[in-house]
Amino acid sequence: MSQNEMGPEGEVDSFHRLGRPSAKYSKPRPIRVCFKTLGSKHEYLKLAKGLRSHGIRCDDDLTRLQQQEREQLSTDFNTLKSKGHIPFFRGSSLKFHHADKMHTCKRNGAKKAPDAQP
Q1: Alpha helices in the chain (DSSP H)
Q2: pLDDT of 56-107, one tens digit each?
Q3: Which of 39, 44, 45, 57 is deepest in the core (most CB within 10 A)?
Q4: Cβ neighbours of residue 37 under 8 Å, at least 6 residues apart?
């Protein structure tokens, strides 16, 4: 991987592996990375799609409250997908695009969402 694919140099404050090593799991353990600034964190997350081709997945660390809110919206997320939308989370809000506009889906509101246009 080149330096351009990895992002700006010197922006990482600390990093360490999570979990315990185990002989029964073949996957490598995740690494938690702490950045010096919020801006550098966002820069790395923007580059995350390019890293997937190298087998590296980057996700934002969520608080327990955000995890619970996303769990509560999981049925709405799946409903939007079945209607042909590409739903995504921004913070703890569930969003999707329809007719060139971004919409926010409230809990149990995906049933009211129109089908995606081809």
Answers
A1: 3-6, 38-46, 48-52, 64-72, 74-82
A2: 888 877 888 888 888 889 999 999 999 999 898 887 789 998 888 889 988 8
A3: 44
A4: 11
Beta-bridge mates of residue 98: 101
CA atoms of 85 and 73, how far apart (whole Å) = 15
Beta carbons of 77 and 94 less than 8 angstroms apart? yes
Yes or no: say if 87 and 80 are a contact pair by the CB < 8 Å rule: yes
- Retrieve residue 80's tokens: 């939007």
pTM beyond cutoff 0.90 = no
Site of tokens 């140099």 = 9
Question: Among all chains, which residue has been given the structure tokens 């971004």?
Answer: 102
**Alpha-carbon gap, residue 62 to 111, rounded angstroms:** 27
Residue with tokens 């997908």: 81
In angstroms, the CA 11 to CA 65 distance is 28
